[in-house]
Amino acid sequence: MSTQEIQSGLAEILEEVAGVAPADATPEKSFTDDLDVDSLSMVEIATAVEDKFGVAIPDDQLANIKTVGDAISFIEKNQG
Amino acid sequence: MSSPSTTDVVVTGLGATTPLGGDVATTWEALLAGRSGVSRITDDWVKEFPAQLVARLATDPAEQIDRVRARRLDRSQQVAVIAAEQAWAESGAADSGVDPVRIAVVFGTGIGGALTLLGQDDVLEAKGPKRVSPFTIPMLMPNGPAAAVGLAVGARGGVHAPVSACASGAEAIRWGLDLLRLDRADIVLVGGAEACVHPLPMAGFAAMRAMSTRNDEPERASRPFDKARDGFVLGEGAAALVLERADSAAARGARVHAKVAGAAGTADGYDLVAPHPEGEGAGRAITAALRDAGLSPADIGHVNAHATSTPVGDTAEAAAIRSSLGEQVLVSATKSQTGHLLGAAGALESVFTILALREQVVPATANLDDPDDDAAVQALDIVRHEPRRTTLTAAVNDSFGFGGHNIALVFTTA
What we know:
The structure holds 2 protein chains of 2 kinds.
Chain A: H1 3-18, H2 39-53, H3 59-62, H4 68-78
Chain B: E1 9-17, H1 24-32, E2 39-40, E3 53-55, H2 67-70, H3 75-91, E4 103-108, H4 114-127, H5 136-140, H6 144-153, E5 159-160, H7 168-181, E6 187-194, H8 199-207, H9 218-221, E7 234-235, E8 237-245, H10 246-251, E9 258-267, H11 280-293, E10 302-304, H12 311-325, E11 330-332, H13 335-338, H14 345-359, E12 361-362, H15 375-379, E13 381-382, E14 388-389, E15 394-401, E16 405-413
Parallel strand pairs in B: 3-7, 4-5, 4-6, 10-11, 10-15, 11-13
Antiparallel strand pairs in B: 1-8, 1-9, 2-3, 6-8, 9-16, 12-14, 15-16
């Protein structure tokens, strides 16, 4: 899956879970500081990422994902 | 009129979402028009159920609350927030300049986040623990509605959640009154919320033989004090009230609906679920609330009764009202139209009591075609068929909950 496809897939998840407008889901955005995504919503996002991309995000890795770009990179690296 | 004392507490905002309407005005209008909020469930699961009736919300919460916000709130929290925000907006409290650390919330529920608990248990069984929502606990906890309301209005002076089954909503008002009298807060947003229409609570209440099985006549099923009553109808919804001291409300020019003149609570100490047959604890609560308000039975013109339409509950309450207030008082049982909102009932019926005082009209008890032969029921003046215009200066709302909880509240005209 291309980076662009991952970004738009992630944007769909962010819209569904946290009400983030797709145009705002750009790589430099911080989940907590820019998009107002709280820690419980991050857990929901991780579950949705696993469903959509087949990529499980372990808890210790989830804590390191601060921006949309971090999430895109993680999915890119770990997709099968 | 004398100037308000610093401990006089008034109601400056009302909110509700109920089986009769999505706000206070439409609910009240439907109540006076005699409309019923009760319908028969048509879902497949209900086929084997003895009791198939429910009083669903007139307005789906999805129409009143943002989608993303709603998905993190149990339905009981959604209705709590909807009612609370209506009351808050009406009161103008947000523009009062009151420090958030002096704003408190007291919001009760009888059952809590049952839909979340049961729904997530289904997820657990079907998909395993990793699929259970991270919002499960904050959505199912019984302080969830209070906490959601506290966040919605930015209350930092304390958020409390009385849980006393079907007395919870009334108990919240009592606690709010106490907080203001004790100067623990300057504004208190109080109320009750319930939303547990689901097969399990329905089966549980039905197993207690507490619910009406008049499935073919939904609108006729809830019939408090009537000879043919056979149980309550489960309802859902929420109601909220903004309380503050009379002097500060007057200083900011707030509209005052009524005064919260007194409150009291007792326990039956008799049985876990059955009411004392003579309504001993209930009558004692009413008497204590009158004493707290500095009023006598002759002052009370109206009682919005708890009257759920169960065979034993209604006669016990009639005895309690007769012994504590006498026979001159005009009694209404509005659950005949709203169904029983459990932990929201006391809050909603307090809203009705306040509106009766404000509008000088006592709502009718629907379906009371043939009053019970019980001596107390026969002795009381239960308003039926049509609302009754009258002159009221003080009124009582009483609420009782499984566990033997009894709460009585006294309201007076503003």
